[in-house]
Design brief:
The strands form eight sheets. A seven-stranded mixed sheet has the order 11-12-9-19-16-17-18. The chain has a five-stranded mixed sheet with strand order 1-5-4-3-2. A five-stranded mixed sheet has the order 14-24-21-20-15, sandwiched between helices. It contains 17 helices and 30 strands. A hairpin with a 2-residue loop joins strand 28 and strand 29 (about 660). With about 725 residues, the protein is α+β, with helices and mostly antiparallel strands. The protein folds into three domains: about 10-215, Aldehyde Oxidoreductase, domain 4 (2-Layer Sandwich), CATH 3.30.365; about 220-305 and about 365-440, Aldehyde oxidase/xanthine dehydrogenase, molybdopterin binding domain (Aldehyde Oxidoreductase, domain 4); about 310-355 and about 450-725, Aldehyde Oxidoreductase, domain 4 (2-Layer Sandwich). Helix 10 (about 385-395) packs across helix 11 and helix 13 packs parallel to helix 17 (about 700-715).
């Protein structure tokens, strides 16, 4: 509660407004309580002096940090604030955070360097310039004090918001105005050694969590604008099909219905955010818009892609398994010849289907257009993106477009729900109806027109030597991607297989990239998520065929590779892995590199005689080089386990007649809370100069560890997902 004897400053007012009923939940961090953020972080006030684009300091010592990255539950607000506060050296309870102005970034020099939040890259790749912003501000404050006191900057100490030299001291705020005018001849070095950190490396609660607990956090779908109307949309169920006609007269007199708007694709434009052909109904509530849209007669031209199905793609993949593909990696001699000549060959075939993001927050966007400006609320992983999308759709100057950055109800890749066509749809509908419009996709529309994780069919073969270890290894993968894309995000489609760490002297990896009409994009752990399931099960098969313990096989096959050895040896120490369990119980291991981090998993499962599976526990050992917020990293790793396991156990899109047919949670199942396993996280950090990610790497090794555990429990090898469609019964 607010102490009645405490001076009521803007700072304490913001803190009280940020918690339910004026109650502040206290969290202990080094020398401070938690930093704060307002429910609407794009409106957090500051009357302070800007030191640089990243931060301003108020007269009462409050430091407002401007965060150019989104908050999608991964703790980005907290980690950015921690990185800057570490170098600035201010008490954590003096920090408030606000989302940075994307109009400023796009139109006036891109001061924030990078504004996207994806690929486990926020801390991993952005920490140098984030920490530099804090260090630069600190040194400019010191320089301002040095000039005022007639001293050299080296004589000034800046610690916990106070500048001092001998008997002199002053709060940062006293010299903020002067510091804002100073240009340093040389930018200071940042702290790279964890031994120097006072804040980083300590578990720090995420600053937005209290707002989510008390319900005051504002998401895109919460947006309310005066005069706003609602739109429900339908695009062709077969992606990129054509709208032939619709009969608005049949529904125009329904209660609340305002208009119908045709949405037209631009020929040749098939990027994430481009419009498909479709139609929207606008009404005074979304329920009325959606009901009228469902009742309105619509005729589609599905085109030739209506002949595509999961089965036809499988037929294509099996045919291409017999044809030479593009070589993505090759090591050693005649791998295929060695396998052909060997009498100890192991061959397996695996499949992962299309998967959808299934974000918690339905895809939505709101756009308000006036003569002076355009305002956008869109849940994208890069909040600079809507500025350009909306400006392009409306033919407006980007300087007139303002993004109101919001919390995201999950993103999981594909640059967030707002980077689908929904943002353009909202802009176009608002332009045509002349009122602010909120577009919400139904869950069916969401799953149908999401950017899906692409399917893969992979065949692997290996020849074993006299020591039971492989001496030749071959893989041939068939991927179905939009426009036959060879890359899934930053990595090639067969990443984690063609880059596997296992030191086989002769290797050849091939792939076919087949053009498909279903839009595809990145999902959490792109490429590694599908391929981890494949390569890490095949590793178990090779180990067992060569009479090796699966964990010892991995340790042997990665000798000399320090980051891999570190997690595997730690896993051996903490997980208690054994293959000697009673029938119906099993443990399985896997290890995958993803986003420059190395993560090993040990899963424990139980399977009843009737095939009822329970994933009891997943132990993770993670090596990302460094960790700035251990509790936040654990949150992300636990979340990635549940996300990936959910898809592997229950997911899988079924394509029939060119379209997704399981388009809601009654047919596209996700793991429920009672099915979630216990997750235990350990860190084994190299801390030798490289930084890896935390948001995704816990996912890829989890499904193969579970599948390997199922094998030891039942004797059955599960080579495709969803796992729960397999008969796991045993006797």
């Amino acid at each position: 509660m607010i102490d009645v004897n405490t001076k009521l400053t803007r700072r304490t007012l913001i803190r009280s407004m940020s918690a339910a009923g004026g109650m502040i939940i206290g969290f202990q961090v080094p020398g401070a309580l938690a930093a704060v953020i307002a429910p609407k972080p794009w409106t957090t006030p500051t009357d302070g002096v800007e030191i640089n684009a990243w931060l301003a300091i108020d007269a009462d010592g409050t430091v407002t940090i401007r965060v150019p990255h989104t908050e999608q539950g991964q703790g980005g607000l907290t980690s950015v604030a921690m990185l800057i506060a570490e170098e600035l050296d201010v008490p954590w309870d003096s920090i408030q955070t606000v989302f940075a102005d994307m109009n400023r970034h796009v139109n006036y020099g891109e001061e924030y360097i990078v504004t996207t939040t994806h690929g486990s890259q926020l801390v991993r790749l952005q920490h140098p310039h984030l920490m530099q912003a804090g260090a630069s501000a600190r040194e400019r404050l010191k320089e301002a004090a040095a000039r005022a006191w007639g001293l050299d900057r080296a004589q000034i100490t800046a610690r916990q918001g106070v500048l001092s030299a001998g008997s002199r001291s002053a709060p940062y705020a006293e010299f903020a105005a002067q510091a804002g005018q100073i240009t340093l001849a040389e930018e200071p070095a940042i702290k790279k050694n964890p031994d120097e950190w006072w804040l980083l490396g300590n578990s720090t609660p995420r600053i937005e969590v209290p707002l989510k607990v008390n319900g005051s956090a504002q998401y895109a779908i919460d947006t309310q604008v005066e005069g706003m109307v609602y739109a429900a949309v339908k695009s062709c169920p077969v992606p990129w099909g054509r709208l032939v006609s619709f009969d608005f007269d049949q529904v125009r007199d329904r209660p609340g219905v305002i208009a119908a708007v045709e949405l037209e694709a631009v020929p040749g434009k098939t990027a994430f955010s481009d419009l498909q052909n479709g139609v929207a109904v606008v009404a005074d509530t979304w329920y009325r818009a959606k009901t009228a849209l469902d009742l309105m007669p619509i005729e589609w031209d599905f085109g030739s892609d209506a002949e595509v199905s999961s089965a036809t793609q499988a037929d294509t993949a099996h045919r291409l398994w017999e044809e030479t593909g593009d070589v993505s990696n090759e090591v050693g001699g005649d791998t295929l010849g060695m396998i052909a000549d060997s009498d100890r060959v192991i061959t397996s075939e695996f499949h992962r289907p299309y998967e959808t993001h299934a974000r918690m927050e339905p895809i939505n966007a709101t756009v308000s257009i006036t003569d002076e400006r355009v305002d956008v609320w869109s849940p994208t992983q890069n909040q600079a993106t809507p500025v350009m999308l909306v400006a392009d759709q409306l033919g407006r100057d980007p300087r007139d477009v303002y993004v109101n950055t919001v919390f995201l109800g999950g993103a999981f890749g594909g640059n967030g729900g707002g980077n689908t066509a929904v943002t353009r749809q909202a802009a176009e509908i608002a332009r045509q109806v002349g009122r602010p419009v909120k577009v919400i996709w139904s869950r069916e529309e969401d799953i149908t027109n999401d950017k899906q994780r692409p399917p893969v069919h992979t065949r692997l073969s290996a020849a074993l030597g006299d020591n039971g270890l492989p001496n030749a290894f071959f893989s041939r993968a068939v991927w179905f991607t939009q426009n036959a894309a060879e890359r899934i995000g930053p990595a090639t489609a067969d990443v984690a297989i063609n880059t596997m760490p296992y030191q086989v002297p002769n290797r050849r990896h091939e792939r076919h990239n087949v053009a498909a009409h279903i839009p595809t994009a990145t999902h959490r752990g792109p490429g590694a998520n599908q391929n981890g399931f494949i390569i890490e099960q095949f590793a178990d098969e090779l180990a067992l065929a060569g009479d090796w313990d699966p964990l010892e096989w991995r340790i042997e096959m990665t000798k000399g590779l320090e980051p891999w050895q570190r997690v595997l040896l730690k896993l051996k120490e903490v997980a208690g892995f054994t293959t000697d369990l009673p029938r119906g119980q099993g443990m399985g291991v896997a290890v995958v590199e993803d986003h420059a981090a190395y993560c090993a998993a040990c899963a424990t499962v139980s399977v009843s005689r009737r095939g009822e599976l329970r994933v009891e526990k997943v132990v993770l050992v993670h090596n990302s080089g460094y960790i700035v917020n251990p509790s936040g990293a654990i949150d992300q790793l636990e979340g990635s386990v549940c996300y990936e396991l959910s898809h592997a156990l229950y997911g899988g899109l079924n394509i029939q007649q060119g379209r997704v047919v399981n388009t809601n949670f009654d047919s596209y199942n996700l793991m429920r809370m009672p099915q979630a396993p216990e997750v235990e996280v350990h860190f084994a950090l190299s801390q030798d100069g490289w930084w890896g990610g935390c948001g995704e790497p816990g996912g890829p090794p989890t499904p193969p560890a579970v599948a390997n555990a199922i094998y030891f429990a039942t004797g059955k090898r599960v080579r495709s997902t969803p796992i729960m469609r397999h008969d796991l019964s045993w006797s």
